[in-house]
Amino acid sequence: MQLEIDIEDWPAPAAPWGDWAALATRALNAVQQVAPELANPRLETSLLFTSDAEIHALNREWRGRDKATNVLSFPMLERAELLALAPEGPPQMLGDIALAYETCAREAAEKDVPLEAHAAHLIIHGLLHLAGHDHAISAEDAETMEALEVLALAQMGIANPYSEN
Q1: Residues 26/76/44/139 CA torsion (nearest 10 deg)
Q2: Domains in the chain: how many in total?
Q3: Where does Zn(2+) bind (predicted)?
Q4: How many CA atoms within 13 Å lie on the side-chain side of 12?
Q5: What are phi and psi of 130, to 5 degrees?
Q6: Minimal CB count within 10 Å: which of 28, 96, 97, 151?
Q7: 95-110 per-position pLDDT tens digit
């Protein structure tokens, strides 16, 4: 998969994380280990690091929710289409993801985790949504998605964000 990354209104990440594009690439590589359907070379995804104001506007326009949120995902393929996609052929847009800086930073501080770790979690979460996983469908779907997130984060050396510790 190719990631098209646009970074607006996000300060440089702390060492040793590299830059946001490098972190996003690491998150993509990790999630591809647990969700191999995302490793299809034809896939393209856009990832926007932006402000709460922009996320608020996107959420209002496309989801009818008049508030900011941490991450938005806009899938362009159904899960069945993704799973049936042959590796040869023209590029295929999987979807778009957008992360809101202020909300992500606040949540990271509340959880007492580095912003970079929380951002990696949200990128993985967004990619899994684009792959057709949805925690809002049922408790079983939520458990499956959470387990995939935890496995992908472990690939990056990031602790389970759902643990009670």
Answers
A1: 20
A2: 1
A3: 125, 129, 135
A4: 5
A5: -60, -30
A6: 151
A7: 999 999 999 999 999 9
